[in-house]
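Suppose a colleague, Dr. K., hands you the sequence of a protein chain of 169 amino acids and asks what its three-dimensional shape might be. Before reaching for any lab equipment, you can write down a predicted structure in token form. Begin with the sequence itself:
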Amino acid sequence: MEVRLLGERDEASYLALRSRSIEEHAELATPEILRELYAARAGTGGLLVAYGQERKSVVGAFYGGSLVGAIGLDADRGNRNPEDIRLWGLYVVPHLRGSLISQLLLEEAIAWSRRQRGKMTVSVQFSRNNQHAFRFFNRNYFSMKAADTGLDAQASTPGVVFMDYFLGE
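The predicted structure, expressed as tokens, is then:
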């Protein structure tokens, strides 16, 4: 098992994994994933290289030489709070779900987040119906954002759970 940041040489495998994730769960297609797949169809290439310039990264998990899981990280674009790093698109192939792969991806994502200057929290959002995601992030010390306790304007986002992980000093 190898878990690491993905680079240019991983792009084809990564886009194939993302396509598979949407084929299985179209309802989980985030704007980021749709943008990636659109760029792939347009043949622009260089997606993972461009991410490095945008303070974005993707962590991938390899098993038996194949990419079997990924999670995206965004330290800038689209963040409601400039101190946040946003996680998106956690996916593990079906036959390896329930293994430690999600855990290892999250641990590497948090390690990457700690290396980003000026960042205090790692945020994630998902459908309120996704109880598996809620249990996973809750077990990993993510806590409900004010949005879900009714103390924030984001509470008006129906059906969405927002959780944060505090990076500390």
